[in-house]
Fold this sequence. Notes:
Blueprint: H1 6-18, H2 47-62, H3 66-81, H4 90-106, H5 110-124, H6 137-148, E1 154-160, E2 171-174, E3 177-179, E4 186-192, E5 194-201, E6 208-214, E7 219-223, H7 231-241, H8 252-261, E8 266-271, E9 274-278, E10 283-286, H9 292-308, E11 317-318, E12 321-322, E13 335-341, E14 364-365
Parallel strand pairs: 1-7, 13-14
Antiparallel strand pairs: 1-4, 2-3, 2-5, 5-6, 8-9, 8-13, 9-10, 11-12
Helix pairs in contact: 1-9, 2-3, 2-4, 3-4, 4-5, 5-6, 7-8
Amino acid sequence: METLDTQKVGGxxxxxxxxGHKPAALDYxxxxxxxxxxxxxxxxxxxxxxxSNLLKxxxxxxxxxxxxxxxxxxxxxxxxxxxxxxxxxxxLLGSYLLLRSESALIQEDKKEAQKYLSLYGRILGPxxxxxxxxxxxxxxxxxxxxxxxxxxxxGVLRVRLPPGISLKSARVAVDLVAQMVQDxxxxxxxxxxxLHTLTLQAENILPSNRFLEIKPDQVTEIPWYPQPxxxxxxxxxxxxxxxxxxxxxxxAVSIAMFRKFQPGVHVLLIQDKTxxxxxxxxxxxxxxxxxxxxxxxxxxxxxSQGKKEDEPATASLSTGILMGVGxxxxxxxxxxxxxLSDESTVDPPEPIVGDDTGLATCCVGD
Length: 366
């Protein structure tokens, strides 16, 4: 099987973008392409490691080593992003926010400090205090001002959970306070404008904690595309396991395997003249014209069709083997995996090349 080169992959990108799709982040395709090196696996952060880094950050702060302080704060932010059950460790988040505020004041950015101090007050609640022995009078004065003059402007946060996530196991929290998720997988809440935290957790999924800013009179919508631990490695293993399998012979078990470690994501594979579109509920095998624009229209048609239909995941499967549902032809070499995302802010596609198995990959989003 020949390799799909970067230029041909770019043609698929261009065709799909004309139909309204956007490239999705690299995280959703690591492991699918043999030429993309896998980073170290992202793991759930250990509270003791965060405490250790907080002590380092405080030492750098006291020594006025701003470069080392800011570097450690960046590392801490990454650790906090995958801290499980942060509700149990609000002291860790609080210490981070205070050091982040002091760092902003060192750089004479009072507005930035106010932003983090406002969040500190929301996280720690009405009894929140700042230790006079550890933090500057300036910081404590600004915190007092922030508490006395809270934001009166409001915005809305809306979070959408993907298909495939059990609502029973999903936990959504804002500023460490648990929120109710509706039966349709949507959580919506009105919040004061400013900085907030959003925590997303589910069974067998890496926890996600992020900072986000709510703007006045605007809706901030976050579609959640969770990833299990070692997602990139699991994609790589799946890819290697099926590299020699014709798409029409992929079994329902193999498809279920992929969906298990990439829930809620549409996947499109292309092999020679065959295309396979996997949505959370259906699997379509089809062929398409050599004209990539027509091929992209076919993809869009199937996705639109899927939104209107409510059929079981095995609707296009028979005795475990995929059945074709299309006509015409498209000449592609190798396999391309597209992960379709609804995220509004996405990274541009990296240059993509295949390897000696004839596999390559790229991603797009709605």
